Structure formats: C-alpha cells, structure tokens
Amino acid sequence: MEGGSGGGVCTSGSMSTVSKEDNLMVSTEVSSYPDEAELELGLGLSLGGGGGGGGVKPQEQGWAQYGRILTAKDFPSTVSSSSSSSSSLSRANRTTVGTKRRADSVAASNNGSQVVGWPPIRAYRMNSLANQSKSPVTEDLNSMVEKSKSTNTMVENTYNGSNNTNGYAKKKGPLNTSFFVKVNMDGIPIGRKVDLSAHSCYETLAKTLEEMFQGPTTTVNAIGSSNENYDAMTESTRPSKLLDGSSDFVLTYEDKEGDWMLVGDVPWGMFLGSARRLRIMRTSDANGLAPRIQERNGRQRSMRI
Amino acid sequence: MGYSFPEEVLEHVLSFIDSDSDRNSVSLVCKSWHDIERWCRRRLFVGNCYAVSPAIAIRRFPELRSVSLKGKPHFADFNLVPHEWGGYAYPWIAAFAKAYPWLEELRLKRMVVSDEALELIAKKFKNFRVLVMYSCEGFSTDGLATIAANCRNLKELDLSESEVDDVSGNWLSQFPDSYTSLESLNITSLSSEIRFSALERLVGRCPNLKTLKLSHSVPLDLLPNLLQKAPQLVELGSGLHTKEVHPDLYSKLAGAFSGCKGLKRLCGLQDVVPSYLPTLYPICVGLTSLNLSDAPIQCPELIKLVSQCQNLQRLWVLDYIEDTGLNALAESCKDLRELRVFPSDPFGQEPNVSLTEQGLVSVSAGCPKLHSVLYFCRRMSNVALSTIARNRPNLTHFRLCIIERFRPDYITLEPLDVGFGAIVEHCKDLKRLSLSGLLTDRVFEYIGSHGKKLEMLSLAFAGDSDLGLHHVLSGCKSLRKLEIRDCPFGDKALLANAAKLETMRSLWMSACQVSYRACKLLGQKMPRLNVEVIAEQGHPDSSPDEYPVEKLYIYRTVSGPRSDMPSFVWTMDKNSALSSS
How are strands ordered across the β-sheet holding A180-185? Predict the structure, then answer.
C-alpha cells in the first residue's frame, strides 16, 4: 500500500541479511523432510513450560509437551515442493523466504494479532529500523570482553523518540556493522540468523537463541523496538541453559577451519573472530566434541580461560 | 492526395517524440506510420512482464536500445506475494541477447534476476550502459563482478533495495583500471564490507561520477577522502557512523562537504551522530532532495537541518520530525513538492512521537507546490482531510496510512469517508490514492464519482460490500492498477465489471470474498485476461467452488497464460469453468 517496507515478521534484524548458504540450507533441509504431516517439533531448550519435566528424549515425535513452535504443517506445502531445480530459483529462496512464509502462517495461528504486511512497510525499511534500534556495539573486538557488563545495560536504552534526549540511536562501531551467522537447531528445518556483533558475551547470545527457537510470540512479533529489548531485560537474570549443560541441547559453532566446537570455551572476542556458523546440537550428538578438541595437539584453537 | 510523406522526414519528426503514449498514438494513425514508428522506437516500457512476451515485443520493435520491465505485483513489497511467484528476467534477457546486440539500458523492477542473466548482460551487449535493478532479487555479488569486469561503457549501476546475495565486497575491484565511465552507482543494499581502496580508486578515475550511494558500511573517517575525489557529485548517499567525535574528522568532513558545491541530493545518514550534522549546513541551501528516512535524527536536530534547506523539493523523513518539525518545514521550505513521513515504531502499541494529522495540515497549508504525500500517522479526522484537500487541490499522489486498522475519525468517531471524499473531490488531478482507517462503501461512492484521473488505488480493510468495489470499477475511468487486501468484496462487482479489467493493467485481491467459481467464470469468459489464483494451502479444486480464493491476480495480456507458474498458482483459462470440482 504505502511506500514503506514490507511484512511484519522479521525478528529484529536477525533475518535481515542474505547469505547464499542460508538459501541452500533452507531448501535442502526442508526437502529432505520425511513426512510433514506427522512431524511435531518441540523444544527441550527452555523448560519454562511444565509438561513432562526432565528426561524426555528429543525424538522426532513426542516433544509436544515442551511447547510448540511452528510445525511443518504450518508451513505452506510449497516450502518443500518448491525447493527445486534451477539455481536461479533456489537463489531466489532468500533468507526472507522463511520469514515471509512464516509470516503468513503465524498471522493465521496468532489469529491476526500480527497482520502480515500491515502496516505496509517494505523489507528494506524494516531492516533499517531494526538496525537503528539494536543495542550498540561501541568497542572493537579487543575490548569487547571487558565491556560486556556495561554493554548489557545499554540494552535498556531502547531507542524511543519521546524519552530519548540524546538525539541519536544506537550505533555500531566501524569494525562490525553487522555480523550475521546462520543458526540451525537440530530437528528444525528452517535455520535462523543471528547478529553476533549485537552481543558482547555468551550469555546474551545464548538467551537470544533460546528465545529465537523457543516460540512464536517472542521471535515473530515486531522488529526489535519493543520485544527484543524487553525480553533481554526481563530474562537477564536467568542463566542460559544452553551454556551450562543442563539442557538437552548444546550450542556449538563451526570455526574458520571447519571444525565444530563448543561455544563458551574461548574469550568472546576470539569467538567472534572465528565463528562462521552456529548449531544447536542435541547433547547426545555433541558428546564427541570435547574429546576431539583435546585430541588436536600442536594446534591451539581454544584457550581455556 | 496522391503524394506520400517521405519516410525519412517522418522518422526525423518522430525522433523528437519521447513519450510512450504519444508514440502509441502515432502508431495508430495508419499502417505506414505504424511501421515507421516501430522501426525507430528506441525505448520500451513493459509495466507487467507477463502482459506481453519477449517474442512479441521483439517482433514489433526491432531496434530497441532501452527496456524497462516490471515483474511482481506491488503488494509483493509487503510480503503478500509468495516467493517464487515469478517475474523472471532471464527469458527476456536471453531473447534480447539475440535480438538487440546493441541494447544499452535495462531497468528492472520487482523481478528475479539470476547471476546467469547478469552474465548474459555482461557478455552479450557490447555497448551496455545502464543497469537498474530496483527491488529485485536472485543475484549475487558474483553476478555484479561479471558486470564490472565486462561492461566497458557502463554508466549507471543501481541496485536500490534489491536483495543481493552478498558473497564478498571484492566485486568492485573487477572494474578494470581502464574503466572510467561510471556516472551513477547505487549499492545501498549491499551489506558486506567493500574494499574501500577499490572504491576510492574507482571514484578517483571516473570524472563524470554524479551519483554515489553507498551502504552504511563505509566508515566516516574515510568519507572525506572519497568526497575530495568527487567534488562534482550531485547525489550522495552514505552512512555516517563513527565511534566518537574527533575535531579533526569534523573539520575534514566539513571541508569535504563544502567542496561538493553541486550536491543536490542527500540520503542515507544511517547512524549519524548529531554532533556531525552541522558539517552539512553549508550544503543545505543547495539541496533539492533529502532522504532522512534511515537516519535516527531527533526533532530538534531535524528542525535545524531542514530549516536551512530552503530549496528543498523532496523530503523523506521518519516521524521523529513530529508536528513541530513539520511546522518548521512548512515555514522554511516553500518549494516542497513531495513529502514522505515513515513510522519509526510501526508495531508499537502507543505513539512514540508527537506526530499527528496536524503536521500534515501545516505542510499542506504552507507549501503551495506540494503534490505528493505519503504519510504514516496514528490518528486522522475528516476535518483535517478536508482542510488538506482544500489547501492542496494540486495533489496528485496521496497515500495515507493510519497505523491501526479500522481507526475512525478521532474527533467524531465516524468513518473517514467524508474526509477522503473531500480529497478526491478537490484534487481533480489525483493519480494515486491509498486509503486507511475506518471506511464504508460511501468512500467508494465518492471515489467512483470524483476520481476520474485516478490511476492507482490501494485498499486495505475497507468497505462493507460489493457495492464498494462496483463504485470503483464502474466510476474510475482512468484506473490502471487496483490492489485490494482484506476487503469484503466478492463475485458480483467483479463479474459485473469484467470488461473493465481489460482496460486496466492489473487487479490484485487477497483475503477478499471472491469465490473460486467466479474466478473460473472470469477466466472462461475473458480470454485476454490471465486470471491467476494463488492458493498455497492446496489446489482450489479441493475446496467447494463457493469458497473464496486466498489471492487473486488478474491482468490483461496478449501472450496467454504464463508458462512459469509455481505450483501454487493456477490460471483460470477457458477450460476451467468446464472442469468438474
């Protein structure tokens, strides 16, 4: 309708950039899905919901009691059928394919609380707004770790026209305007993207990821202006289960050399410099990681703090 | 009688006629004029890439040098058109590669352009000069690298708002050292770091560079060097982010801006630090266009900036400008022709800024040349709209978006029918209109009776019944594009006005109440229309015929149903009404 930007469903900036690999990830993973109708996806990550307590194995079925994110049923059938042929078509499967399609489904499942494409704002403008309201990263990589505590509190300075007397919004340092990496969670066909440079420590990153994969209300609604910052503030006191090993999932990353490492072992700055993508892996599958790291001698890739 | 007008003379006369509609009129005079005209037409505009096929276009116009194509429907901008709907540029480019080796310009909007298509452009058109891809997708920086490496005569490369698979910023280095013809570069949509030294060298060796619009990843401390190499710039777009304020950097930047004496258009300014804004003051008086819609500048600084731009003709800004800022605008910028105010917090429940209908009323009163408005706000009244209409009968584009749906007049709590009615009644040259707020069928009655020059109408969450749609289709003589979402319009109005649809470019209806049966009927009866039903939940045959279709896109065409439809799009052709459901 108006010459603004599009759609109502981008998490604040996390899905806004495009990467070639991400397109392939979306299309290949979805097309390998066995039977959409039967698949129920749940999350063992955040055990905020009651349900079956602990000890449920993360299987393909049976996660329902842990709270539900969008199931494959919610996606239009085209998501799998169209992950197709020509490279130009699969290239056309942008990151935003995932978000755009989910926009339609989520709007339906939320009973229109977030209406697709309303207000009529173009994707370009959404991204611009998202960039404006993200938490600032004002230091370069080296001082990132020391500053992690103070930067966390900046999250509260949501850019809000009427309250803000500063006259400018959050800005990013020149070294890292954005650094989006793909995140995939085992069992979920659609990957996400997260901006690592918007975080200054593992805790906020892990929390963001938990919220991202946890449920539609926190991930789908609104560009960062209200939701993301609100969530970060209220959740800031709860330790992340992804990092302390108490969840059924662990957070891992692929480094520059293509090896998969546990997140949290190295100083944040070093992690930023070497992480290429993330994977939320089932703990059972991740058991092989630690010994592999120790096996490698002669190459110091992780520094115990 | 008895003599014929020499062709060469007619060709020469025609060479002065640029406008498409005039050329179309010329071609209708007689057969020989038709023939002469088609051989000397050099530019072609195709508003809907499926309305005609490449073969037909090539057959009629054998000597084109410049083509513009548009693909997806406008509502694709708001995620209403599923991905892979279509709009592929490759078939066109491949056909042009054979037919027009001397093609110079391609302007594509809302199309899917692959790297293979870009490669064709790079390799097959020896004199290629202008590539504009507005809101396109499907290509990567690899494709751009091929363009850079091969198009020796490239003047303009514009990627506004396109989604680019940003593999690396190195493509810019593919422009050879001998390449000096760049005049316009717009890479605002790229996010990867470009190699700044390559950019600097490129800018330094292209003396005719007039437009430079960069992504926000160009750091502020490097901008002065860039500007010093291109003092002839007319249009600049750049972020201005920096860690802290340096006095040195400040004076360097101020000096560099002052050096750009011809700068008329400015945009970007993402992440600008307010302390740097005064570096722009010296050039403000020369600015005719200012786009601050990506800039997080607050009201006081905005006022300071804008009040110095006395020659401003176009302003795009966020609602941080507030009513007070718009009042200042109305006082300072008497030459203003176009205003767009975008929301800074579109999904917030409460207003975050003090921007109301008053701001727009002020500008409508203070700026006599204002003719194009796009305004997002949270409240409106009939009296304000009537005032605006009376103040500015010269409005040609009026797009109002009241953020919350179904909002009535905030003073009287009535629908906004009368207000919009005043707009169409007073603004006799109104070409484009977008409505919002609480609206009944009455507003469509007004639009149908007054909107005689209306070419494009966008409707959402409005109206009560088919009568609304009927008023529009039967009354708006000049209507070309109609896009509707979530309105209670059904079969009756559509079928009663079927013939009207052949006089329009396209009709989009989503989440309305048009039944599958009506679509099939329309497809059967109107062979020169493509009636496309978009149904992502499954084949429409799997539901009863009376059920409404999810999305409907109808457009006139001379090339029949398209052959590249994805699995969720069905064309209703002459056989559909006969097939059993």
Answer: A192-195, A180-185, A277-282, A249-254, A260-262
Q: How many CB atoms are located within 10 Å of the residue B65 CB? A: 16
Q: Which of A120, A162, A167 sits opposite B301 (nearest CB)?
A: A167
Distance CA B522, CA A172 (A): 54
Q: Which residues of A touch B353 (CB under 8 A)?
A: 161-162
A103 touches B: beta carbon within 8 Å: yes
Tens digits of residue pLDDT in B545-579: 999 999 999 999 999 999 999 988 989 877 655 44
Tell me which H or E stretch contains B201: helix B196-205
Task: Go through chain B and tell me how many residues it has.
Answer: 581
**DSSP 3-state of A1:** coil
10 Å CB burial of residue B101 (0-12, 13-18, 19+) is exposed
**What's the predicted TM-score (pTM) here?**
0.71
- The ipTM value here is 0.89
CB contact (8 A) between residue A91 and residue B139: yes
- The answer to which of B67-76, B157-166, B450-459, B499-508 has the lowest mean pLDDT is B157-166
Candidates A177, A193, A225, partner chain B, best to mutate (most B CBs within 10 A): A177
pLDDT the model gives residue A119? 94
Q: Check if the beta carbon of residue B479 is closer than 8 Å to that of residue B457.
A: yes
B241 touches chain A (CB under 8 A): yes
pLDDT band at B353 (very low <50, low <70, confident <90, very high): very high
- Whether B320 and B344 have beta carbons less than 8 Å apart is answered as yes
Query: What pLDDT does A239 receive?
Result: 59
pLDDT at res. A134: 55
Query: What's the Rg (C-alpha) of chain A?
Result: 19
Chain B, window 122-181: residues with a beta carbon less than 8 angstroms from a chain A beta carbon:
135, 137-140, 161, 163-167
Q: What is the helix (H) or strand (E) element at residue B3, kind and residue range? A: none
Residue of B nearest to A129 (CA): B344
pLDDT for B246: 76
Picking from A33, A28, A171, A193, the residue whose alpha carbon sits closest to that of residue A99 is: A193
Closest CA to B322 of B303, B300, B299: B299
Q: Which two tokens stand for residue A37?
A: 């109708």
Give the C-alpha separation, B162 to A4, whole Å: 14
